[in-house]
Design brief:
The chain contains 20 helices and 23 strands. The protein is of the alpha/beta class. The protein folds into three domains: 192 residues, Cobalamin-binding domain (Rossmann fold); 255 residues, TIM Barrel (Alpha-Beta Barrel), CATH 3.20.20.70; 135 residues, Rossmann fold. The chain has a seven-stranded mixed sheet, sandwiched between helices. The chain has a six-stranded parallel sheet with strand order 10-13-14-15-16-17. A six-stranded mixed sheet has the order 20-19-18-21-22-23, sandwiched between helices. A hairpin with a 5-residue loop joins strand 22 and strand 23. Helix 9 packs parallel to helix 10.
């Protein structure tokens, strides 16, 4: 069959220069949105939709590969990752005229995706539409009654059941529709939902399809991993019972944990490196370090395959890490790891069934940092019994721990999870408008102790405090100030103007500005207008130079503005703050900084390291994509 596996566009189109939002859906545990400002369409794509966090659609890509194994004419199309416009997407569907379109939907995109199907049917009336993905309603028989635009749904981990459906529709098998696990279909005009069935061993799945996909765009930049990045999974599942976690409850349908052979994982990485010279890879597992023996095998396989020279990251549990594991992973090239903490309060951790001790989390984080591996931690505000004191203690813990980056989010009781059932029973849900179940910036629930507005404010405050504290601890030191003075003194006397790019958290930029002041220089900030208020308390307006478009540092778009500012102020040097520890992916910022000054361009990392003369002719510069400001 002619089958299109689709992650359709998900953004709000706007005229050039206007601010809007874009989202990530397929492959994300947490479908959510980002801001962007469009500079306009280029060949059916909007470049500003690309960049930052873009997950690889592992389920969609694996299902595509499996469909090809079964002889179907299958194609994967990830319009989110490619920044594709709606017009270009619909035109492609109309040209291809697929027999079946498989769409990975999600809770916040459901209404949007139904509209996409309605538009597809205008050009391909005969098409069969299959919905898969993480939304609780697609497993209900009434879903097909409510949404006649959809022909079938496959819920849970969907690859094998989806291909079984394709084989049946194509007449390749005589299996009964009722025997396909997790399938929702129509019988005599009414919806029928089959039981989920069993998870298949991972060795029964092929490597994910990648040839059809925009592989240079996928990126999870844990603590500064470089692009282009290869993403894959070595294991699936998690035996722990966190009440908020969607994939184990909705996709795996339980606590089962499965592994691929370590040799197969290494072989997949090495095979893909023959096609694209990836600078990093990311093993996007739910909890990679469940089994110590497997971690040691994986580290050994990566080393034996000669992959240990490539920086890579993954996700695990801090309490499970020990010295032998972290040493083996570090030796195999592990650069960074994500740990979920959620809260500093042990009673809250027990309440959400995290099955973890905060003391062991702290030990695991400190152990990982001592091994020289960078750490990203995740926290969430709005857990059932959260109080002002528990949130304050969580912020203080985040600021105190020796970590590199953090994520603070608003607890979102995702429908289909135990947490959703609890919040609904307590009357805490503000609404069931699925479009807003994002967690990134809007609260969809309250708790006994917090309003939605208070939770949103808590996240903003936590980020500001964390990054200010990090900057003060790492950058506002005599050693840093001496290093900065030495780097600039070679080309200028005190009193000279120095440009500082607002290319990281404002707290870091403000600390650099203060250091330049104390060293006797005249700091100026070059920033997007949305950060203006962040600097008006520390600098006069004459030393703050803003731009409205683009939304981030793109040299071509900022060339005229940079030339205008450079003509007005004779900068002797420029300083580029990094939101990571390496300066990875800051090539465009370096170019803009170079346009502001003929002097040195200095990089300052989140660790307080000064990288001299970055981005200048004759030097290797971390490049590839513009860094969001």
């Amino acid at each position: 069959m002619n089958v299109l596996f689709s992650n359709p566009p998900w953004h709000q189109p706007v005229p050039p220069g206007e601010r809007s939002w874009r989202g990530v859906r397929a492959g994300s545990r947490w479908p959510h949105q980002f801001e962007y400002v469009s500079a306009g369409e280029v060949n059916g794509h909007i470049p500003e939709l690309i960049g930052g966090y873009i997950p690889f659609p592992i389920w969609l890509a694996t299902a595509t590969a499996l469909a090809k194994q079964h002889g179907h004419d299958a194609q994967a199309r990830d319009s989110v990752a490619s920044g594709e416009t709606y017009e270009s997407f619909y035109a492609h569907v109309a040209r291809r005229q697929p027999d079946v379109v498989v769409i990975e939907t999600s809770t916040p995109t459901l209404k949007h995706d139904i509209a996409v199907v309605e538009r597809i049917r205008q050009d391909v009336p005969h098409v069969k539409v299959v919905f898969v993905g993480m939304h609780h309603e697609i497993e209900e028989p009434w879903f097909l009654d409510r949404y006649p635009q959809v022909d079938y749904c496959v819920y849970g981990e969907y690859e094998h059941s989806t291909i079984a459906l394709l084989d049946l529709l194509d007449g390749r098998t005589q299996v009964d529709m009722a025997d396909i696990g997790g399938l929702v279909w129509r019988k005599d005009g009414a919806g029928v939902a089959n039981p989920f069935g069993k998870l298949v061993p991972l060795e029964g799945l092929p490597w994910a399809e990648r040839d059809d996909l925009p592989m240079l765009n996928y990126y999870d930049g844990v603590c500064g991993l470089e692009r282009p990045q290869l993403q894959l999974m070595a294991t699936r599942g998690c035996p722990y019972g966190c009440t908020f976690c969607g994939w184990p409850q909705m996709l795996y349908r339980g606590p089962k944990y499965r592994i691929r052979t370590a040799e197969d994982v290494a072989a997949e990485i090495k095979h893909n490196l023959t096609k694209i010279p990836y600078k990093s890879f990311y093993i996007d597992d739910d909890t990679v370090n469940i089994k110590k023996d497997y971690i040691l095998q994986l580290a050994r396989a990566i080393k034996d395959a000669g992959l240990d020279s490539i920086r890579w990251g993954t996700m695990g549990r801090a309490d499970l890490m020990d010295e032998e594991m972290i040493a083996a992973l570090k030796e195999a090239g592990l650069f960074s790891i994500k740990y979920g903490v959620e809260t500093a309060d042990q009673d809250l951790l027990n309440e959400i069934k995290k099955n973890i001790k905060i003391s062991e989390v702290i030990e695991g984080v400190e152990l990982t940092k001592r091994a020289g591996v960078k750490v990203h931690l995740t926290f969430t505000f709005g857990l059932p019994s959260d109080t002002p004191e528990t949130i304050e203690n969580t912020i203080q813990l985040a600021c105190r721990l020796p970590v590199d980056t953090v994520q603070f989010s608003i607890t979102t009781p995702y429908p289909g999870t135990k947490m959703y059932d609890q919040y609904k029973a307590n009357g805490w849900l503000l609404h069931e408008n699925w479009d807003e179940y994002l967690g990134s910036h809007r609260a969809v629930s309250r708790t006994a102790n917090f309003t939605a507005d208070q939770l949103e404010d808590a996240v903003k405050s936590a980020y500001a405090r964390f990054w200010e504290e990090q900057a003060l601890r790492r950058v506002r030191t005599p050693q840093f100030e001496q290093g900065l003075r030495d780097a600039i003194a070679a080309v200028a006397e005190p009193g000279a103007p120095v440009a500082v790019m607002q290319s990281a958290r404002p707290g870091l930029t403000r600390v650099i500005v203060a250091s330049l002041k104390d060293n006797g220089y005249e700091p100026h900030v070059f920033t997007h207008a949305r950060f203006l208020a962040s600097f008006q308390t520390v600098l006069p307006d004459s030393q703050i130079h803003t731009f409205e478009s683009p939304f981030d540092f793109r040299h071509e778009a900022l060339a005229d503005r940079a030339a205008e500012v450079a003509a007005a102020v004779p900068f002797v040097a420029a300083v580029v703050p990094y939101h990571n520890a390496t300066g990875a992916n800051y090539g465009e910022v370096h170019q803009v900084a170079g346009a502001l000054t003929g002097g040195p361009v200095l990089g300052v990392t989140v660790d307080g390291d000064i990288l001299p003369q970055v981005g200048l002719p004759g030097r290797t510069t971390p490049t590839l994509t513009p860094a969001a400001v």
